[in-house]
Amino acid sequence: MSAVEQSPIAIAARAGAAVSWTADHLHALGATRHDRAPLIGDADVVRIAPDLDIWDAWPVQDADGAPSALPGGQTLWMALGAPRFPDPDARHGHARIHLILRDASGWHPLGPAMPDGFSPGSREWSGSALLAADRRTLTLFFTATGRRGEATMTFEQRLFRADATLAAGGGAYRLTEWRNLREFVVRDPAHYMASDAGSGAVGTIKAFRDPAYFHDPRDGRHHVFFATSLAGSASAFNGAVGWASARDDTLAQWDIRAPLISADTLNNELERPHVVMHGGLYYLFWSTQRHVFNPDGPTGPTGLYGMVSDRIDGGWRPLNGTGLVFANPDAAPKQAYSWLVLPDLQVTSFIDAWGSDGSDANARRFGATFAPMLRLRLQVDEAGLETE
Fold first, then answer.
1. 148-to-120, 126, 283 alpha-carbon distances in Å
2. pLDDT of residue 150
3. How many helices (H) and strands (E) does the chain have?
4. Average pLDDT of the segment spanning 89-117
5. Residues 155-173: what's their mean pLDDT?
């Protein structure tokens, strides 16, 4: 047994039990009011570049989760990006993490965050980024999907971290001196299914991806939360939320822990899970889509879901009794996706099949840019959208 497997945290984690998100929670949707996001219109679809599609985005953040403030009110963001394809689903096979500047005039693409040939995957999927107190050292947590140079595209997903130096010059920012690349969370087969076990078809891909950094203000510990699939499940719908904890403030060594949330038999993908703290409580959010629910059970709408707890390692209970925080509007059920809640309760996402009823033909109308910001209201176990 390795040193990691023998660590107290790793041993204790194996005794944990995930909180289940179940069909009973979803059955309650029929009798429960839930919020719908406003319709996205033509004026909202502002591309950041004519030849670049972007989706899944996150800010370069401080330890408290807030976007790192730069001179002049600027912030830096990252998002997955790819050239524009006739079939939007093709973008996933070409995804790279792009650096984006946000200022008073809008969003400005700065190119791929990592240099060519640095990432160990054949493409880069979602993650998070932490800017240190020195305002120069950036740590990127990300998903390396496939293997660099592979002849046939695979769906293996591995969690990596790397450091870079943030440099400014010529009115722009860039990331230099990339270093310390390492697979920082290694899949534990006792809890987590191999990510290349699915078919590769949209909606069936298994998960070990989307590391989202969180610094716990109560005890100062560092964690990442990630989308995953349960080992040992008899169901094709075995999505879960996993997590890992850093051994110290260097963020170099991490211990994987047992899953926190299980959607076994209910849903295949609990994507981009992340935690914010509000009112002394922990809120864990994820995004999911209608087509990845088990068709033999109750299905929920495409939307933002979440749970709340007074501790980080368990005791999670579904927000609003169902888990659903808000959904896309009925008239455009696929208009946006990949919601990320910031500490001030602003919510970012990307524009997906906007202005459409969600049918397959209309779903090709891909917005590929930032959606208008929303804002949550949270009151203990109740959550929804703020209205003006």
1. 5, 17, 36
2. 94
3. 3, 23
4. 95
5. 93
Chain position carrying tokens 């075995």: 238
244 touches 224 (CB < 8 A): yes
- Spatial distance between the Cα atoms of 98 and 54, rounded to a whole number of angstroms: 8
Report whether 160 contacts 184 (CB < 8 A): yes
Distant-in-sequence, close-in-space partners of 268: CB < 8 Å, separation ≥ 6:
203, 204, 206, 229, 236, 237, 238, 239, 292, 293, 294
Q: Tell me which amino acid residue 325 is.
A: V
Cβ–Cβ < 8 Å for 320, 34:
yes
Q: What are phi and psi of 150, to 5 degrees?
A: -65, 140
* CA atoms of 152 and 279, how far apart (whole Å): 48
Extract the tokens encoding 245: 């904890």
What whole-number distance in Å separates Cα of residue 228 and Cα of residue 136? 32
CA distance 67 to 342: 8
Residue 163: pLDDT band (50, 70, 90) is very high
Q: What is the pLDDT of residue 200?
A: 73
Among 131, 130, 122, 116, CA closest to 158: 122
Could you count the other beta carbons within 10 Å of the beta carbon of residue 45?
A: 17
Q: Is 365 exposed, middle or buried (0-12, 13-18, 19+ CB in 10 A)?
A: middle
Its pTM stands at 0.93
Tokens found for residue 200: 């590769």
Q: Which amino acid is at 67?
A: P
Alpha-carbon gap, residue 224 to 245, rounded angstroms: 7
